[in-house]
Amino acid sequence: MITIRNNVVSTNPGDSSVEASYTWVDARNINRDDITLLEEQYTISSELLADIMDQDEQARIEREDDYIAIIVRLPALADDSKGINQYAVPLGIVLYKDMVITICQSDSIVLEDFSKNRFRQYPVATKEGFVISILGRATMVYIRLLKYINRQKSLVEEQLQKSIMNYELIQLLQIQKSLVYFSTSLSTNEALMGKLLKIPYFKLTSEEERDFLEDTITDNKQAIEMANICTTILTGTMDAFASVIGNNMNVIMKRLTIISIALMFPTLIVSFYGMNIELPYMHHPYAWVGALSLCGLSAFLGGWMLSDRRNQRLVQRSVQAKRIKEKKPRGKRRRKRAIPD
Questions:
Q1: Alpha-carbon distance 58 to 60, whole Å?
Q2: Which of 97, 101, 211, 305 could disulfide-link to 25, CB 3.0 to 4.6 Å?
Q3: What is the Cα gyration radius of the chain?
Q4: What is the DSSP string of 40-62?
Q5: pLDDT, tens digit (0-9, with 9 covering 90-100), for 268-300
């Protein structure tokens, strides 16, 4: 879908609104017809459109005969209900003399904010200011999403402490994948912003725009550090909780094994009295009561002997006995009197 917007307004606190002198052509969720229109009516090369439609295209800037082409990486809308599976998409910005064309294969929070003028103190009066404003807004959205992902990671960790399933680990894997996408996109955007300060054909017209770009570079570095820290912590967390899940499974298997061994003693007694030979008390009318009582007692004793509490008590008693033994005062050695020569 292609939308032509002529009402890009710069609003600063205490100042009057300033309308931009260029036209913004907003192309989002484009299809084949939109691509044909961009090629024929706006004379954008098919190679550039193919690069913009590539999901893995990195941020860069290049100069053509009629326009300047810039590709940046923007955070896209999450494709799940919890917002864990985040990813980034390339955004193409084509700068003409009096027109700015943005091309994105999907929707983005950044473009939605600019289309509804949900921003302040952004230098969008010029085309160059509009480009760095998109980069600045994208950096702020990255930081906000990184904080949200970190909160979701904490919630998944709380659930994982009591879990023996793989669902929580899969969620952590999705979070780690989102962090990798964000870290890569932020790194390429940082390289692009460094070039924008140096190249001669992208000129910032005011000191305000230069200061804004420098602040954006600082915020982008902060976002990269946040993504790297979260990735490092998450890698160790996944390894630790994989061991926790294994330990929980071992505890369950241990309990089942104790139950199986405890039930072996009643099975032995019943099997013994099921033989076709003469056995003691086999003709007694209440022999079955004695057999059931013996089975129950043997099962109880077997479970008690193999239980964790008994083993823990034995270990605690041995440790206490060892401590008491170490605290006992040692007998003083008698000093031998020196025998005079």
A1: 6
A2: 101
A3: 36
A4: HTS---HHHHHHHH-TTPPPEEE
A5: 777 776 776 676 766 777 766 777 787 777 777
The structure tokens 């899940």 sit at 245
| CA angle at 91 for the pair 86 and 95, rounded to the nearest 5° | 160
Share of the chain above pLDDT 70, in %: 77
**Residue owning tokens 């509490």:** 309
Task: List the helix and strand counts (H, then E) for the chain.
Answer: 9, 8
Tokens for 283?
Answer: 């003709």
- Structure pTM? 0.69
Give pLDDT tens digits for 216-275: 899 999 999 988 888 888 888 777 777 777 777 787 787 788 778 777 777 777 777 677
141, amino acid identity: V
Length of the chain: 341
β pairing state of 99-104 and 9-10:
unpaired
In this predicted model, what pLDDT tens digit does every residue of 301-340 receive, in sequence order?
A: 777 776 666 656 666 677 677 777 776 655 544 454 545 5
Please, what are the domains in the chain? 2-248 (3.30.460.20), 263-326 (no CATH)
* Neighbour-count burial for 303-323, b at 16+ CB within 10 Å, e otherwise: beebeeeeeeeeeeeeeeeee
| Beta carbons within 10 angstroms of residue 178's beta carbon | 25
**According to the 3-state scheme, what is the secondary structure of 13-45?**
CCCCCEECCCEEEEEECCCHHHHHHHHHCCCCC
- Among 128, 91, 319, 322, smallest CA distance to 210 is for 128
Token digits of residue 75: 């955070």
Residues near 255 by beta carbon (within 8 Å), at least 6 away in sequence: none
Mention every residue, 6+ apart, whose C-beta is less than 8 A from residue 307: 258
Give the integer Cα–Cα distance in Å for 168 and 124.
43
